[in-house]
Structures are given as C-alpha cells and as structure tokens.
Write a structure and sequence with these properties.
The complex is a heterodimer. Chain A has 15 helices and 11 strands. The longest helix of chain A is centred in the last third of the chain and has 24 residues. The radius of gyration of chain A is 21 Å and the shape is globular. The longest helix of chain B has 20 residues. In chain B, helix 4 links the parallel strand 11 and strand 12. By secondary structure, chain B is α+β, with helices and mostly antiparallel strands. Chain B is built from 16 helices and 15 strands. The chains are: A alpha/beta, B alpha+beta. At the A-B interface, helix 9 of A face loops of B.
C-alpha cells in the first residue's frame, strides 16, 4: 500500500480495496519498523486512528475529498492543536499548541490522517537536519548521509514511505534541497501562495510552506489543499487557486527553458552537470527550446540571505524568553538570568549563531551597511529573475552542488553548510515558485533538477515536472530496504 | 542669568477601536487579567498580525484635523526590546514612514494664540502590564492591554513653559475626544504624556541637553513635573553641573523627577520593517471618504456658535470645549426653540455649577437635554419667571419629573392675570400708605419695597414685568 500514489490510494479507499484504518495501521507499523531513521519527532498514533475512522465513515457515505483517509505527516513547524509542536528545538519541547496552523486546518478539513510531526532542523535553520534537538535524520538512500534540511524529516519520511506525503517549509531551500537529497518531488510555492499562519516563523519574508511528495501529480493534490488566501496572514495573496491537477498533461511543445550560465559555470561538479544535462535533454525531446540566460547578481544571494534571514529571525525568536511558554531555566535569580539562561539553554548553537548575526546586522551603525544593503541586493536579484523570465518560461538548474553529504561532514563549518543552498536561496529572495524533481543518481544517491517559474505559475511548474515524470522513472525509485 | 525653557511632548492616545490593532480581541478596559488576550496578543509561536483598518481610519482622521500630510505609504516596523509584558520581544510601531506627517495645533495661553508644530503621529501597539503588587515578590503579567492601538503624537519643541505644555495637552485631549478617536480617560491610561524638557540661556539658538520625563498621566502632574524639571536643570547648570541626556520618572507623591536610565543605558531598538505586515497604502478615495465624514472641529464650531447663535466669546468657548457639551447645547436649543443666549446661560451657569458640584461630566448629567429644554420652553413662553425657573431646576436635578409636571404639581405657574395682580396691589397700597406717600414725594427706592411685597404675597408667581407696570400706574395714582 505504501508504494501507491495518492491517486491510487484514493481509488483503493473508494473501491474498498483497503480502509483508511488499515492504511493508517500499515504506515504506523512502518514508522515503528524504521524508527532508526529518526524521521518523526512525534507519532500521533491515536489521533491518526481516530482520523482514519472518521475518514472511513466519510468515505462510506460517498463523501470525501482527494486526501480523505490518506495518512500524511506535518513538518513539526506547523502548530497542531493539542499536539506537541517543537520546531525541532529544546525550547519548544514542552509546547503544546492551543491552535491549528491554517495549513493543518486545511488538511483536517480535507479528512487527511495525521501520522505525526516530522523532524527538522531547529527552527528550520540548517541544511542537513543535524541541528535538530531530536538528533539527525538519516537519509534512507544511505544512512550515513544527511537527508538535507531543514525539512529533512519530511524528505526522508516520504522517500522511505513512512508517510504517503508530507508538508515542508522553505526559507532558503528547505523543501527543495531535502527533496533532491531524498529523491522526491518538493515544491516551494510563490511567497504568499500558502498561508504562514501557525507556521513558526524563521524569516517571515522568505518562509513558505509547500508539498513534499513522491511525484508532481501527488504534489499537485497536496498544493490544492494547502494553497489559498488566508485573512489571518496579511502576506498571503488574495488570488484564486487554479486546479493544479487539470493542466498536468499539457504539452510542453514550445516551452522556453532558460539555463543561467551562472548555474552551470565550471564551479558545478561535473557529475552533477552531466546528470542535469541528460535531464534537460529529455525536455528538448518533449519539445522545449533551451536558451542560456544570465543573472549576474546570483552570486550575491548567499551574503544577502545571511543578513536578511538572521535579521528577521533575531526578532522572530525573541518571543522565546521563558516567560509565557516553552523552556524556562531552573531557579532564575532575576529577570535577566531568566532570559539569558532560558535562551542560552533552550536554543541550539546554529540558532544562537543566526540570532547573533541578525542582532548585529540590525544594530545602530550597522543597519545601513548590512540590512539596507542586503535589501537592495534582494531587489537586484529579483530583477535578474524578472528579466530572465521575460525571455524564457522557466529557469532550470541544479538544486544542490553535490548529492547528499555525510552526516557530520559539514556541521562544524557553517560557511560550508550555508553554501549547500547556493542554488536555492536566490529563489526565496525573489519570492518565486520553484520545485525539485528527481533527475538521476550519482553514486547511488539521488540528484534533483530545479525548475523555477514566474510568480503564481505553480500549475505550469507541476505540468512541466509531471511531463518529465511521464518519460522518466527516477521518481519511482525506492531506497533499498524500504520497498 | 535668564533662562528659556524648551518643551516638546510625545502623547500616546489610545484609539477607541472595538478590537486590538493586530488581533480581534476586545480592547474594553477593566476585564479580569489575561481574559482579553488571544493567541496573537500572547505572541504564541506561528501567529501573525492583521492590521485593524479602524485604527488606520482614526489616525487619518487625526491627521486631517491637524492639517497634516497623510502618508500615502506608511510602514510598520519592529522595535526590539525584552520585557515580560512585551510578549513578542518587539513592539510593532512605525519608524521611518509614519502614517501622519507634519501638522499643527493652535493653543491659547493668557489670551495669546500660539501655533505648536506636530512633527508626526504614528500607529503602534501597546504593551501589557506588569503587576508588582500581591504576588509575594513575584511579578504578574496582564496582557489585556497588549495590542491596544495607540497613536503616538510627537510635537515640535515649540513650547516655552509648563503652562504652554499643559495648554497644548489640553487642546489635544479636547481634539481627540471631539474626533471620537480616543475616550481621553487619563486614569485608565488612554491619554499619556512623555515630556522632553531642556533649558537654554535666553537668546541662545542651540537647544540645551534634554531630559525625557516618562508617563505622566494628568494635566496637573505635567505642569508640576515640567516645572520641577526646569528648576532642577537650572539649578544644576548654575551650580556648574551639566544636564545629561536621560529618561526620568516623575514621582507625583514626592513631586520630583528621578533618573530612570541614561543615554548610554538606552536600548538599541534595532528597528526594521515588519515583514509580517504589508505597507499601509492610503489612496485619495479613502481620504475623501474620511474627509466627508470628519466631525466639525472645535475652532469651527466656536465660530459657528458665535455667528449663528450670537453667543459671546466666553459662552462659545465654554460650550465648545467638548463635543458632548456642544451637542447638549444644540440638542437643548433645538428641543426648546428658545433664545440661544438664554439656553447658553442656563448650561454654562446653573447646569455647569450643578455638574461641578456633583463631579459629573455632561454625559452623566442628571438633567437630560430634553428635560432642560422643557424648562426653557416655560421660561420663554412666560409660564414661569427666571426666579421660579431656578426652583424648578433644583427639582429637575433631583427627580425624573419634567418641568411641566413640577410646575403643575407645585402650582408655580406664573400669574399674568392682571385682575389678580391688581387686587393684590390695591391691598398692599391700602396697607402701606406711609410708603405710598414716600414714593409720591420722590423716593423712588420705595418702589422695590412694593415689588417685594407683591411678589411675597403672590409667592413669586406674578409676572414681574406685569407687576412693575401695574404698580407704577397705581402708585402714580
């Protein structure tokens, strides 16, 4: 059952081939069986079974939506009513959210079954899932490598079939990079497409939730549930949501694909370049035209990101002060002690590093030199994309510089770690939608192809990804031992 | 040496919206602690602010009333600092792009009108309250107030005395209540003031170093705090010391200000635009709609009262000090169809005196505009005299009866029947022949004696004009 697509699962549930309870029990069993991957922070077994019973009743009465009765999992960054929402941090290890994130609410209304909350880098800060308070997640393709991050639990759980699909969030590549490392399909929607309400903020102007699934077809079903304007999120966009599944089979004839020369410079690993070239060639066969484009400011994306994201996070994480919720140090002697020890003990190293960087960048005397400058660069990068996207329909490139790296390999060197996101970060700065699809293997590790589109063209991106998945089977591969 | 004082005020007015500036929780005052704080106000992980349009509307109303530039584009920023009653660890405020730009307000001190510049006014959220009492050494936090909308109004350093500062504050207080954007309740903290005070030798252009006195919540304390601070600074300088830039607190019990923190200890608030909120865009249509519904401002109202109702400067000024008072006047006038000056006199006279004595505001008056109008009607149509009217007024104040009921019940209807008055006059003339002789021999003063006798006999109900006329005729024989 765990090998089926969402559409097949929905059919199986409706035809009576299996019930939601059976399906849910099956996934719960697998979660226990592959516990060592450390993909889940919380498994909500009881709730999952309750959801499944309700879903079976709904299906029996001939009702139900595409996801009714389908067991999925949420990244532990989305607040879930009465369920621990840790955000991968000791700070929130005791935090039971008193409300549901809008995204969670939407899955509940759709009748999806919640299997649990997925592991992630602490407060979504990391590219390897190693910063999680709950320990590193192992990549099912090679348990000595990282699954990527920050949505590492989501990537690994979907790849190892411990959930039919999952949610992720992407601030600088946190959906696309783990999707690439785990050989699944991950979509970061346009900023504003999916509500951020109840999604614990890392960098508010960059954070965006999105689907992580086995295929573009599955991702379309997930996004259909997640997308839409939310009056509770001022930055969500009041724009009608298209039918993401309807256009999946549209022809790609005449599609103009841009390849930024900056993405394919000599810096790109030759195996990577070769794999991507093969993938892009498939598109040529599907009728697409390939064109080189240039985005001269891309090289500034990482430094700009590492000013803007930490600056925003330095304020976003101020609420974790030990006063109202979350971790509080033992026996504080006074207010300052309460603050410094609660935060000092509650946050991990990478989180502290980013809070400090951000605090510095916003301080008097540095604000113009860092924050204001970074915002200007952000504008330049957006303009680069805007210009390129007047010449071509989509932009393609790598998701990551290399396939999944080893656990422990980069964690001691933050700069090296930050460079893992060199191909994904600029897209967040521009607020554009982009997805990662499996496009081959290097040394038995999956490689992702990134497809970047214009604002609110998720439907086109899914169509482009789906067409590729009709002529290739990279997305069908399952890691050994998890079949 | 002669010194000149320079004062600028920052006034926080709590906007009278139903719900908070970034959440749907109620802003009502006085609820049980933390019962009016929702997930957004508590700063729970994942929550997001959504701007209350009503707060924007009120800020724009204020901007128009002070003839300020209304920013077509304004931005909310995060002001970062840690405090237990600040749930998010930052306050959402406005920094570089406030919603209201430069404007002004005219004040009057000792008959002289002076224009005070207003630098800006910006929207922000209030913090909660720390409760230090009754927690045995611990501090309680009440977040009911967290997220209440504030409009911070910053003046230019245009005031030169505590009196001017108080006049400005009063004028502003009157204005925001007029506009209906703030209830002005200073005890509940709806209208709070920070004063920036410095002194310089008279004639010097450059400003002296200023001290900021925080959170003064009454007109009386503003005057006292500023005067105290002026004295402190002058004394300090004259003794060879230097004023340091700092924040000071006014202690109303000891009547002194004391240092809270120096400039060096001041927070670096690390303002930056709040990425959770979009810039506020105000277009012409929005402004036009507000302008069309802008209430009449005090100055305009006063002028209209003077021209339309022929009121004198003093009455017009008093009646327009507050919108409810002006409304009361106009409602009474309309209902009574009386002479405007008569109406004004009753309100600024007897009614104001009664309100003052009882410590009540016009909105809590024990005599409604309708009941007062009932009294004025009877004065106007000569049913009762002014003197009797005062008696009726007393009863009106103490009972729910109407003037007509009181007049009927107590038989106060004025006697205008000349026959009845003549009969009494004849009797009194007959009984007081000595006085009649005196009058006839040229002692005009005796006339008052006769009036008094007639009135006494008729229990004050005789029409005085009629009495005068008839008496004169009869006495002249």
């Amino acid at each position: 059952m765990h090998t089926k697509s969402l559409t097949e699962l929905a059919q199986g549930l409706r035809s009576g081939e299996f019930s939601s309870v059976e399906l849910t029990q099956h996934f719960l069993k697998r979660i226990k069986q592959y516990h060592d991957l450390n993909t889940y922070i919380t498994v909500t077994e009881e709730i999952a079974l309750q959801n499944a019973i309700a879903a079976d009743a709904r299906l029996a009465s001939g009702q139900g939506a595409a996801l009714t009765g389908i067991p999925m999992a949420q990244k532990d960054i989305f607040c879930t009513l009465d369920i621990k929402t840790s955000c991968g941090s000791k700070m929130l290890d005791n935090f039971i959210a008193p409300y549901n994130a809008t995204v969670v609410e939407k899955f509940n209304q759709a009748g999806a079954v919640l299997l649990g909350k997925l592991n992630m880098d602490e407060f979504a800060m990391g590219s390897s899932n190693e910063t999680s308070y709950y320990g590193a997640v192992k990549n099912p393709w090679n348990i000595n490598t990282v699954p990527g991050g920050s949505s590492g639990g989501s990537g690994a759980a979907v790849a190892s079939r411990l959930a039919s699909c999952a949610t992720g969030t992407d601030t600088g590549g946190s959906i696309r990079q783990p999707a690439a490392h785990c050989g699944i399909t991950g979509l970061k929607p346009t900023y504003g497409r999916v509500s951020r309400y109840g999604m614990i903020a890392y960098a508010s102007s960059l954070d965006q939730g999105g689907p992580m699934a086995r295929s573009a077809e599955d991702a379309a079903i997930l996004l259909q549930t997640m997308a839409g304007f939310d009056p509770k999120d001022s930055t969500s966009v009041d724009l009608s949501v298209p039918d993401y599944s309807a256009g999946l089979n549209n022809s790609l004839a005449g599609l103009k694909i841009g390849l930024p020369k900056e993405f394919f410079s000599t810096d790109l690993n030759s195996d990577m370049a070769a794999t991507l070239k093969t993938a892009i060639n498939e598109y040529r066969k599907l009728g697409a035209e390939i064109k080189e484009v240039s985005m001269p400011n891309l090289k500034l994306a990482i430094p700009a990101y590492y000013v803007i994201a930490p600056a925003e996070c330095s304020a976003n994480l101020s609420r974790f002060d030990g006063v109202r919720f979350g971790y509080r140090c033992e026996n504080p002697v006074d207010l300052t002690d309460l603050y410094t020890r609660s935060r000092g003990e509650g946050f991990g190293k990478e989180v502290k590093r980013r809070i400090l960087m951000g605090t510095y960048a916003l301080s008097t005397g540095y604000y113009d030199a860092y924050y204001v400058k970074a915002q200007k660069i952000r504008r330049l990068i957006s303009d680069d994309f805007k210009n390129a996207l007047t010449e071509v329909d989509v932009i393609m490139g790598p998701v990551t510089p290399t396939p999944a790296f080893g656990i422990g390999e980069k964690i001691a060197d933050p700069i090296e770690m930050y460079l893992s996101d060199i191909y994904t970060i600029a897209i967040n700065l521009a607020g554009l939608p982009a997805l990662s699809i499996p496009a081959g293997f290097i040394n038995d590790l999956p490689v992702g192809l990134q497809i970047i589109g214009n604002y609110f063209t998720e439907d086109r991106l899914l169509n482009i990804a789906h067409q590729y998945q009709q002529v290739t089977d990279w997305h069908q591969h399952t890691p050994k031992g998890f079949e | 040496m002669e010194w000149e004082t320079v004062i600028g005020l920052e006034i926080h007015t709590q906007l009278a919206t139903q719900s908070k500036i970034f959440s749907g929780a109620s802003t009502a005052y006085g609820a049980e602690p933390n019962t009016q704080a929702c997930a957004v106000d508590l700063g729970l992980p994942g929550v997001l602010p959504v701007l209350n349009e009503e707060a924007v509307r009120m800020a724009v109303i204020f901007g128009m009333a002070i003839e300020a530039h209304i920013a077509p584009y304004s931005v909310f920023a995060r002001k970062n600092y840690f405090y237990p009653d600040l749930p998010k660890g930052y306050q959402i405020s406005q920094m570089d792009h406030p919603i209201v730009g430069q404007g002004h307000l005219d004040i009057e001190v000792e008959g002289v009108t002076k224009r005070i510049g207003i630098t800006r006014a910006h929207l922000e959220e209030d913090a909660g309250k720390s409760l230090h009492e009754s927690f045995h050494g611990l501090t309680g936090i009440d977040l009911n107030r967290a997220g209440t909308p504030l409009l911070e109004i910053v003046s230019e350093p245009d005031m030169r005395s505590a009196k001017e500062a108080v006049a400005y504050m009063r004028k502003l207080h009157e204005l925001v209540r007029y506009l209906g954007i703030c209830d002005g309740n200073m005890q509940e903290g709806s209208f709070r003031c920070d004063a920036n005070v410095s002194v310089r030798p008279k004639g010097q252009q450059a400003f002296g170093t200023r001290a900021e006195i925080k959170n003064i919540n009454s007109f009386k304390f503003v005057e006292k705090a500023i005067n105290h601070e002026i004295e402190r600074q002058i004394e300090l300088i004259e003794n060879g010391g230097k004023v340091v830039q700092e924040t000071r607190l006014y202690d109303s019990v000891k009547d002194e200000t004391r240092s809270m923190r120096s400039k060096e200890e001041a927070n670096d608030y690390r303002y930056f635009p709040d990425p959770d909120l979009l810039p506020v865009l105000i277009d012409k249509a929005f402004k036009a709609q507000i302008k069309a519904n802008l209430p009449e401002l005090p100055q305009a109202k006063k002028l209209r009262f003077k021209t339309d109702y022929q009121l004198d400067e003093e009455s017009a000024t008093i009646l327009t000090t507050s919108r409810p008072l002006a409304d009361y006047f106009e409602a009474t006038l309309k209902a009574s169809q009386s002479e405007p000056r008569l109406c004004a006199n009753w309100i600024t006279g007897d009614l104001s005196a009664a309100l003052n004595k009882a410590g009540l505001e016009i909105t809590d008056s024990l005599i409604s505009d309708e009941r007062l109008a009932g009294l004025l009607k009877r004065i106007s149509d000569n049913t009762i005299s002014g003197k009797i009217a005062k008696q009726v007024f007393e009863v009106l104040w103490q009972s729910p009866a109407t003037a007509d009921e009181i007049i009927a019940e107590q038989g106060l209807k004025q006697i205008t029947d000349t026959g009845a008055i003549e009969a009494i006059i004849d009797k009194i003339i007959a009984d007081n022949q000595g006085q009649v002789e005196q009058y006839r021999s040229g002692k005009d003063k005796v006339f008052a004696f006769f009036v008094g006798q007639v009135m006494k006999e008729m229990k004050g109900k005789a029409n005085p004009a009629e009495v005068n006329k008839l008496l004169k005729n009869k006495l002249q024989g």
